[in-house]
Design goal:
The chain is α/β, with parallel strands linked by helices and about 725 residues long. The protein has 20 helices and 26 strands. It has three domains: about 5-85 and about 180-340, TIM Barrel, CATH 3.20.20; about 360-540, Glycoside hydrolase family 3 C-terminal domain (Rossmann fold, 3-Layer(aba) Sandwich); about 605-720, Immunoglobulin-like (Sandwich). A hairpin with a 5-residue loop joins strand 23 (about 690) and strand 24. The longest helix has 18 residues, at about 315-335.
Length: about 725
């Protein structure tokens, strides 16, 4: 806090303070909409005071520079205090120029790329007047049925933490003109929702919470994130927004975070629905007592906080702390000096969707794509005489992904456009089938098969619609619809030179596709330049280098499935995985192993790993060991490889995972080039939450792994003494 913000606080009445920490939508203050604001207006269910509503401190859901200017003008014209608004928005994987969904960006295994993409998003958003984005989402996810998988970095706590840090650094930078505040979410463990169903119960032990789910939020805090958003779910039976252990004990006291904590949309009232609160007054008490500063899209504070203060249940000092945190945020953003901050309609038009930004979005999509299978089909030859593009996702811009902020389908390069731009008129398109999951329509098959029969190669665009993932879009089945398989089978009858371009917001259970398709290139939801990236990858202009950061199951029944699991007391041994072994931890109708493991991804070239070394066999606290390996490009393309480093703690006071990612490096090698990659091992890397719930290392043996994916074998051991 500063003397300036304390002075402002001293001038505020208690009613102004309370309304200052309410958040409602920007549309409330945009007269040109000329429609009743049924969501958040003064006459809505929130029942906010028509004068005090002009004392709120922040709004959400802003799109466009002109809208920001109109809203700020209107607000300041009606506000008695003239304290300008901060505009917040979900800038998740780009603002107007979209890059791949977060699960895709993580698949790049490239911290610098993640940082650069976030920086681009911040610049575009700042020019539209956005001051804070509700990103990054640092929720660790192990169940692909969950809709918000697409917004995560996957199943590994180390990678999740690295991507959260890089995103915060890219968004916030030095908080200059083109930076915006970041808000890490959803605190905490929202990704552990039972059955992969959004808003559902979360039940994790304190050890599991700290070991797996908290590290990424902590990484964002350490990177200086300005805000934290609480989760919808419960932890230990208590809704996160009113969970004092989470917010006060861990976030505030243990981690030292003194920035703004904001609820998620409507979460105060949801405490009543959960059964953890009797009414809005109790919700207001629980949230403020826990340390939640801003109430988003409910009015519990507005209606009951003053009463709670008068009753002595909440102190005005608690309210003052929340108000000061929001004022300090405004000061950091420059809002106290310039209500319009960086907004510029003219500059926004020049910068958003600029050639430079499109090129970066294309690079993001190219580096994020994962080659899942290739029986020698790819890359296709650019000199091919005819190309059949088939599939319901082949000629649409609706591949830019859920949470697309200001991005538009009509501004997205479709695969058809990308192929035409690269290859010209030799590309012909047939839809083949509908995208809907319940569609059984085969009426378009004949046209598609005729086109495939008369073409030298086939690009078949399959997958799920972008709206089948994202918030609230959970799935009980994660395979492709039957009509897409039927289409593929018909196409293969007339042309075997087929590559599937797969578009998805989550890992899919596609064992059948893996058996049928000669090649599968997973594009995720690739963003504004997705079609250009897809064309470049399929025809060898760019070599695939992405690695999946979330396990693909063989079948839905394996979920949740993740690489860093425990062995159990009766493990099924790896060499026995494909056969039935009674009385082991296994299935009678499927192997334990996934279809594609964490860290997996193919290339058009080949890499040879050799000369594995560990600098010693014994380590003490304060010392370090160096693990190294030589990587050689033994193929025929210059390409990039994500080298992955894992450690296994062989015995602990608590059972330890079969392996844990502890480092990675993305390197580029020319044909025949060889490089040595090294990873440092230190004692802090070996710490975990032990039986006595202390974060510490324990003496004993550890195995070391370096490889292409999480199935790599150990090559050395060392002992911590």
């Amino acid at each position: 806090m500063s003397q300036r913000t304390e002075k402002i606080l001293a001038q505020m009445s208690i009613d102004e303070k309370i309304y200052f920490i309410e958040q409602i939508t920007t549309a409330t203050f945009v007269p040109s909409l000329k429609r009743p604001n049924i969501i958040t207006g003064p006459d809505s269910a929130l029942k906010l005071d028509k004068e005090l509503i002009y004392e709120v401190g922040t709004t959400l859901n802003l799109i466009g520079a002109e809208t920001m200017i109109e809203a700020q003008d209107h607000f300041l014209a009606h506000s008695k205090s003239k304290r300008a608004l901060v505009f917040m928005q979900d800038v998740i994987h780009g603002h107007r120029t979209l890059y791949p969904i977060n699960l895709g960006v993580a698949a790049s295994f490239d911290r610098d790329l993640a940082r650069e993409l976030a920086q681009m998003a911040a610049k575009e958003a700042s020019l539209d007047g956005i001051g804070v984005t509700f990103a990054p989402m640092a929720d660790l996810v192990r169940d692909p049925r969950w809709g918000r998988v697409m917004e995560s970095s996957g199943e590994d706590p180390y990678l999740n933490a690295e991507m959260a840090r890089a995103t915060v650094e890219g968004l916030q930078g030095d908080m200059g003109k083109y930076n915006i505040g970041a808000c890490v979410k959803h605190f905490a463990a929202y990704g552990a929702a039972e059955a992969g169903r959004d808003y559902n119960t979360v039940d994790v032990s304190e050890r599991t919470l700290r070991e797996y789910y908290l590290p990424a939020y902590k990484s964002a805090i350490d990177a200086g994130v300005k805000m934290v958003m609480t989760a919808f779910n419960i932890i230990d039976g208590v809704p996160c927004v009113g969970n004092k252990h989470l917010i006060k004990d861990i976030l505030r006291d243990e981690w030292g975070f003194d920035g703004v904590v904001i609820s998620d949309y409507g979460a105060f009232d949801e405490m009543i629905t959960h059964g953890a609160s009797e009414n809005q007054k109790e919700s207001a008490y629980l949230a403020m007592d826990a340390g939640c500063d801003i109430e988003m899209m409910t009015s519990c504070y507005a209606h009951h906080l003053k009463e709670l203060i008068e009753e002595g249940k909440i102190s005005e000092a608690q309210l003052d702390k929340s108000v000061l945190r929001v004022l300090d945020l405004k000061e950091e953003l420059g809002i106290l000096d310039n209500p319009y901050r960086s907004v510029s309609p003219e500059e926004a038009k020049r910068v958003q969707l600029s050639p430079e930004h499109r090129a970066l979005a294309r690079k993001g999509a190219e580096q994020s794509a994962v080659l899942l299978k290739n029986n020698g089909v790819l890359p296709f030859d650019k000199e091919v005489g005819s190309v059949a593009l088939i599939g319901p996702l082949g000629a649409t811009g609706e591949i830019h992904g859920s949470w697309h902020c200001g991005g538009k389908a009509e501004e997205t390069v479709s695969v058809y456009e990308g192929l035409k731009n690269l290859l010209g008129d030799k590309v012909k398109y047939a839809q083949g089938c509908q995208i809907e999951y319940d569609s059984e329509d085969t009426s378009l098959f004949d046209e598609a098969c005729q086109l495939a029969k008369n073409s030298e190669c086939v690009v078949l665009c399959l997958g799920e619609h972008q709206d089948y993932s994202g918030e609230g879009n959970c799935r009980a089945s994660i395979d492709l619809p039957e009509v897409q398989y039927k289409l593929l089978e018909r196409i293969l009858e007339v042309n075997k030179n087929v590559a599937v371009a797969l578009f998805t917001g989550r890992p899919l259970a596609i064992s059948r596709l893996d058996k049928l398709a000669p090649a599968i290139l997973n594009m995720w939801m690739p963003g504004t330049e997705g079609g250009s990236a897809c064309a470049n990858l399929l025809f060898g202009e760019v070599i695939p280098s992405g690695k999946i950061t979330m396990t693909f199951p063989r079948t839905l029944g394996q979920c949740p499935i993740y690489y860093n699991h425990y062995t159990t007391g009766r493990p099924k041994l790896e060499q026995d995985d494909l056969k039935r072994v009674p009385y082991t931890s296994s299935y009678i109708d499927a192997p334990n192993s996934p279809l594609y493991p964490f860290g997996y991804g193919l290339s058009y070239t080949s890499f040879e790993y050799s000369d594995y070394k560990l600098s010693g066999t014994v380590m003490r606290a304060g010392e370090r060991l160096i693990a190294s390996v030589k990587i050689k490009n033994t193929g025929k393309y210059r390409a990039r490889e994500a080298v992955q480093f894992y450690i296994r703690d062989l015995k602990g006071s608590c059972v330890r995972p079969v392996k844990e990612l502890k480092g990675f490096e993305k390197l580029e090698l020319d044909i025949g080039e060889e490089k040595t990659v090294t990873f440092e091992i230190t004692e802090p890397m070996l710490r975990y939450w032990t039986r006595n719930m202390r974060h510490e290392s324990e003496k004993g043996e550890f195995e070391v792994f370096i490889g292409k994916d999480s199935t790599c074998a150990p090559f050395a051991k060392f002992e911590l003494i």
